[in-house]
């Protein structure tokens, strides 16, 4: 989950700042110690959802397809930050609750690339690639969206369902294909 500073204060109390638990792969991004509980329209919950930092100018919850089915949320497949016509949800913290009116999505598979990475793969921002994963449960994922930023480290993002489907932990080789 990503949150705004104001939503963070509602959930955890006035003056709260995110506390870094560990750095993520992209410079400046981190998993925080703060955890929330998500309440779906079917009154089912997912506890211990970690907030990622730093805070953003929008609050957003990225769920897997399975999470959406469990909670009763019809998740649109979106690029992070694209909240137009997305469902909302209730988020509980130790000090309060936030009723998001939008921002609940299933994150589109994507690869973060720098200028050098895009030149190497001969792609541009918004193009789609394939990700071939070899191993006992190997799979090829289509429609890996290229997302450009000049200061990122090459990194592919697939969701938990996709990682579990190909038993990512046993993968012997991964390759991005044009």
Question: What are the key terms here?
Answer:
4 helices, alpha+beta, 16% helix, 13 strands, five-stranded mixed beta sheet, five-stranded antiparallel beta sheet, 178 residues
Considering DSSP H and I runs of 4 or more, what fraction of the residues is helical?
10-25%
As an assembly, this protein is single chain
Q: Mind describing the biggest β-sheet?
A: 5 strands, antiparallel
- What percent of residues are in strands? 35-45%
**Rg, nearest Å:** 17 Å
> What integer is the average pLDDT?
96
Number of strands: 13
The parts where pLDDT drops under 50 for at least 5 residues are none
User: Termini, distance in Å?
Assistant: 30 Å
**Topology as a string of helices (H) and strands (E):** HEEEEHEEEEEHEEEHE
Q: Explain this structure to me?
A:
The protein has 178 residues and is an alpha+beta fold. It has four helices and 13 strands. The strands form three sheets. Strands 1, 2, 3, 6 and 7 form a five-stranded antiparallel β-sheet that branches. A five-stranded mixed β-sheet has the order 12-9-11-10-13. A three-stranded parallel β-sheet has the order 4-8-5, with no helix packed on it. β6 and β7 form a beta hairpin. It starts with a helix and ends with a strand. 23% of the residues are buried.
């Amino acid at each position: 989950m990503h949150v705004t500073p104001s939503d963070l204060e509602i959930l955890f109390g006035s003056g709260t700042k995110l506390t870094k638990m560990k750095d993520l792969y992209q410079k400046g991004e981190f998993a925080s110690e703060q955890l929330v509980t998500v309440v779906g329209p079917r009154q089912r919950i997912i506890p211990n959802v970690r907030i990622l930092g730093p805070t953003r100018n929008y609050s957003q919850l990225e769920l897997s397809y399975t999470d959406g089915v469990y909670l009763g949320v019809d998740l649109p497949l979106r690029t992070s930050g694209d909240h137009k016509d997305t469902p909302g949800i209730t988020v509980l913290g130790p000090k309060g609750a936030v009723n998001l009116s939008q921002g609940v999505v299933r994150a589109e598979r994507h690869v973060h690339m720098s200028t050098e990475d895009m030149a190497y793969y001969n792609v541009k921002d918004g193009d789609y690639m394939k990700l071939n994963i070899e191993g006992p449960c190997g799979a090829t994922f289509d429609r890996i969206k290229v997302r450009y930023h000049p200061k990122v480290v090459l990194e592919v993002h697939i969701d938990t369902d996709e990682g579990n489907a190909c038993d990512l932990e046993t993968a012997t080789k991964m390759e991005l294909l044009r």
